Amino acid sequence: MNQHTETKVDIYHYFDYREYLNAVYTVRKQKKSGFSHRLFSHEAGITSPNYLFRVLKGERTLNGDYIEKFCHALHLTGNKKKYFTTLVYFNNETQSSTKERYLQSLLSIRYRRGIHRIDDKKLQFFSKWYYPVIRELAVIIDFRGDFNLLARSCHPRITAQQCENAVSYLLKNGFLEKNKNGTFKRSDPVISSGDEVKSVVLRNYHKQTLNQSIDALNTIAPENRDISSVTLCVSKKTYLAMKKEIQDFRKRLLSMAREDKNPEMVCLAGFQLFPRSRIDLDTGSTHED
Question: Total structural domains in the chain?
Answer without folding.
Answer: 1
